[in-house]
C-alpha cells in the first residue's frame, strides 16, 4: 500500500491540476455548523483570500482576518465589498493578533506552519468566555490507518472534482506567495498536545487529508 500511494498521489496531482477545487473551502459550511447563529466578533487565522472571513460575516457583527502573506491579504481586500464588516491585516498570528477577545476563532490549513501547542495556547488566550475555536488542519501520515484513509480519499477527491467542475471550471484556489511547508505532526501527537492545551477538545480525522478540532471556552 505504501508503495502504491505515492504513484496514486502523483496521478491525483495531475488530475487535480486539470480539475481544480478548493479542499479547504469544502469545510467552510461544516465550520459554520459548529458556530452559534449569531455572535459578536470572529478572527480567522491564515485568512488567505478571505473566503471564510467573508462567510463569517453572515453570523458575526465584525470579522478580522490575519495572514502572513501580504499579496494574498491584498487580494482579500480587493475581493471584499467596502461596506462588509470584515478587515484584513498582514501579521504573525502568534505575535500580532489584534486585541480581542473573540467569540469565534477559525484556523484552516494554517496551524501546521506554527508551533502547535503555542498556537493553541495563544488562540485560547484570545477567545472570549463561551467562545468557540475551530481548526481544520493537516497531519503527517504515520500509521496504517492514515494510509487507508488517504487511499479512500483518492476516489472521493476525483468524484468531488468531477462534480465541482461539471459543465464549468471550478474556481482555482488562490495561490499563496509566502513559503509553505508540509505537516510534521502525526495525528496521535496532535490529539495528545491538543488535549493538554485545550481539555475537552474534540478532534477527528477527515477525508481530503484534513483533521478537525473544535473547542469551547468555559
Q: Your description of this structure?
A:
The chain has 218 residues and is an alpha/beta fold. It has two domains: 43 residues, no CATH class; 153 residues, Rossmann fold. Helix content is 37%, strand content 23%. The chain is built from seven helices and seven strands. The chain has a seven-stranded mixed beta sheet with strand order 3-2-1-4-5-7-6, sandwiched between helices. β4, α5 and β5 form a beta-alpha-beta unit. It starts with a helix and ends with a strand.
List the SSEs and their pairings.
Blueprint: H1 4-18, H2 28-33, E1 39-45, H3 51-56, E2 60-67, H4 70-79, E3 86-90, E4 102-108, H5 116-126, E5 127-137, H6 144-165, H7 187-197, E6 202-206, E7 210-216
Parallel strand pairs: 1-2, 1-4, 2-3, 4-5
Antiparallel strand pairs: 5-7, 6-7
What is the compact description of this entry?
By secondary structure, the chain is of the alpha/beta class. The chain has helices at 4-18, 28-33, 51-56, 70-79, 116-126, 144-165, 187-197, and strands at residues 39-45, 60-67, 86-90, 102-108, 127-137, 202-206, 210-216.
Amino acid at each position: 500500500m505504501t508503495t502504491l500511494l505515492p504513484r496514486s498521489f502523483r496521478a491525483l496531482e495531475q488530475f487535480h491540476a486539470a480539475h481544480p477545487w478548493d479542499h479547504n473551502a469544502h469545510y467552510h459550511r461544516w465550520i459554520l455548523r459548529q458556530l452559534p447563529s449569531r455572535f459578536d466578533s470572529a478572527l480567522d487565522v491564515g485568512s488567505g483570500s478571505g473566503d471564510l472571513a467573508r462567510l463569517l460575516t453572515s453570523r458575526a457583527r465584525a470579522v478580522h482576518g490575519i495572514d502572513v502573506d501580504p499579496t494574498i491579504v491584498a487580494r482579500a481586500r480587493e475581493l471584499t465589498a467596502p461596506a462588509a464588516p470584515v478587515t484584513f491585516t498582514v501579521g504573525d498570528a502568534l505575535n500580532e493578533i489584534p486585541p480581542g477577545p473573540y467569540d469565534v476563532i477559525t484556523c484552516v490549513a494554517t496551524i501546521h506552519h506554527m508551533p502547535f501547542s503555542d498556537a493553541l495556547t495563544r488562540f485560547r488566550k484570545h477567545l472570549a468566555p463561551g467562545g468557540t475555536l475551530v481548526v481544520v488542519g493537516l497531519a503527517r501520515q504515520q500509521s496504517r490507518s492514515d494510509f487507508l484513509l488517504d487511499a479512500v480519499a483518492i476516489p472521493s477527491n476525483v468524484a468531488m472534482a468531477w462534480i465541482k467542475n461539471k459543465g464549468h471550471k471550478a474556481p482555482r484556489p488562490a495561490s499563496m506567495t509566502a513559503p509553505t511547508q508540509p505537516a510534521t505532526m502525526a495525528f496521535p501527537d496532535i490529539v495528545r498536545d491538543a488535549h493538554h492545551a485545550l481539555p475537552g477538545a474534540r478532534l477527528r480525522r477527515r477525508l481530503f487529508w484534513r483533521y478537525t478540532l473544535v473547542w469551547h471556552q468555559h
